[in-house]
Amino acid sequence: DAGITQSPRYKITETGRQVTLMCHQTWSHSYMFWYRQDLGHGLRLIYYSAAADITDKGEVPDGYVVSRSKTENFPLTLESATRSQTSVYFCASSDLGANYGYTFGSGTRLTVV
Amino acid sequence: QKEVEQNSGPLSVPEGAIASLNCTYSDRGSQSFFWYRQYSGKSPELIMSIYSNGDKEDGRFTAQLNKASQYVSLLIRDSQPSDSATYLCAVNIRGGTSYDKVIFGPGTSLSVIP
């Protein structure tokens, strides 16, 4: 199906475990983004990517790692999950970058116990 | 720290009334401004973008931008119960030597009462 898809939709993991959230888009958009959404903080940018093999930090990158070996995929890895990383994670993409609006995936609700 | 601020609400308006949502931002270099709508449990959806001072209309939605005052607003005319959602203001932040990125305000919860 065309669009931007995230997997899994829901994930429960234990403190200290590594977990990877997947994001896949079929539009060949150059730009991709990872946000987390928490009550009281709204959407905060974790990492973004302007093209394959080009990534940069956002507002809250600590504890996260990204890669972008292919244009269509932008996985987000929590190297050692902590309870403070319990959140809803949204992936987004854009063909023209930050000045033209994004399309968001459906989100991944991650709970770290 | 670049910031985007919104009244958290909830804002309640009767059906058929005009809902007015406000947003201020701190980065004077911002060039692009967006309004997203987010229904409970869903992802944000882009509904308006505005780049120049003044008004931009799209159906029942009007976005207003005043760069001198660092202020952007969204008016929803003839509000419907289906407009009940959280509205997120978003602003691009110039990256300097890096890439531009977008930061979001905390959102305003709107409730349209039948």
Q: What would you report as the Rg of chain B, rounded to the nearest angstrom?
A: 14 Å
Average pLDDT reading of chain A: 93
Number of strands of chain A: 11
| Total E-strand runs of chain B | 11
Q: SSE order of chain A in H/E notation? A: EEEEEEEEEEE
Termini distance of chain A? 33 Å
Fraction of residues of chain A in helices?
under 10%
Low-confidence runs of at least 5 consecutive residues of chain B: none
Describe what is shown at a glance.
In chain A, 0% of the residues lie in helices and 51% in strands.
How would you sum up this structure, described in words?
The complex is a heterodimer of chains A (113) and B (114). Chain A has 113 residues and is mostly beta strands. Chain A has strands at residues 4-7, 10-13, 19-25, 31-38, 42-51, 54-57, 64-66, 76-78, 87-94, 103-104, 108-112. Chain A is built from no helices and eleven strands. In chain A, strand 4 (31-38) and strand 5 (42-51) form a beta hairpin. Chain A is globular. Chain A starts with a strand and ends with a strand. The model of chain A has no long low-confidence stretch (mean pLDDT 93). Chain B is mainly β. Chain B is built from no helices and eleven strands. Chain B has strands spanning 4-6, 11-14, 19-25, 33-38, 45-50, 54-58, 61-66, 71-76, 85-93, 101-104, 108-113. In chain B, the strands form two sheets. In chain B, strands 2, 4, 5, 9, 10 and 11 form a six-stranded mixed beta sheet that branches. A five-stranded antiparallel beta sheet of chain B has the order 1-3-8-7-6, with no helix packed on it. In chain B, a hairpin with a 2-residue loop joins strand 6 and strand 7. The model of chain B has no long low-confidence stretch (mean pLDDT 93). Classes of the chains: A mainly beta (113), B mainly beta (114). Chain A binds chain B through residues 33, 35, 40-45, 48, 50, 56, 58-59, 90, 97-107, and chain B through 31-32, 34, 42-46, 49, 51, 88, 92-93, 95, 98-107.
